[in-house]
Amino acid sequence: MPTRRRILLVTWDGAGNMPPELALVRGLVDRDNDVHILSYASTRDRFQQAGGTFHPLTNVVEIDQNEPKTPDQDLRLALDNVFYGKEFGHDLETDVDELSPDVVLVDGALNYGVLSALGSGKPTVALWHTVYSILSAGTSPGSSDPYARELNEAAARLGLQPFESRGQMIE
Predict the structure, then answer these.
(1) What is the dihedral of CA 15, 17, 23, 26, to 10 degrees?
(2) Which residues, including other chains, have CB under 8 Å from residue 138's CB and lie 6 or more apart?
(3) CB 106 within 8 A of CB 126
(4) What is the distance in angstroms between the CA of the first residue and the CA of the last residue of the chain?
(5) pTM score, two decimals?
(6) pLDDT tens, 76-115?
(7) DSSP string covering 30-58, please?
(8) Which of 59, 37, 43 is nearest to 106 (CA)?
């Protein structure tokens, strides 16, 4: 009989990421794994229906997709609070300490979540649910991406080597 594993999935309500992540949770639960999900409150019912144990993010700004925003406002909110939201890393560190999972699964869009999972020393899988070529173009610390240097500074604080691209970070 396979070993029951405690798995922590860290994600957000990004629409396109939800169907594959819900299917993953169902499949892991069906295989008798103890699956914990750290996510926005808006995802609670869906992940609980999939059989997971839900843990709300406590420090993250939850983006309300129903609130009217201009495209520029929407992009800024996503960049600051999701893709480069440091709070995902803080919440993940707390849950890793409390749950002591066997493996951590992180939505690949959550850069600081991925860094914190890698820094935890736990086996980590970054889930990427969209076109991989977006990552393969890479963003190096010397590029025009204002977030790249911050990501590598955070990696260094976690004892990780700098990354030459976001693609390298999740590979």
Answers:
(1) -90
(2) 164, 165, 166, 167, 168
(3) yes
(4) 30
(5) 0.85
(6) 888 899 989 999 999 999 999 999 999 999 999 999 999 9
(7) HTT-EEEEEE-GGGHHHHHHTTPEEEE-S
(8) 37
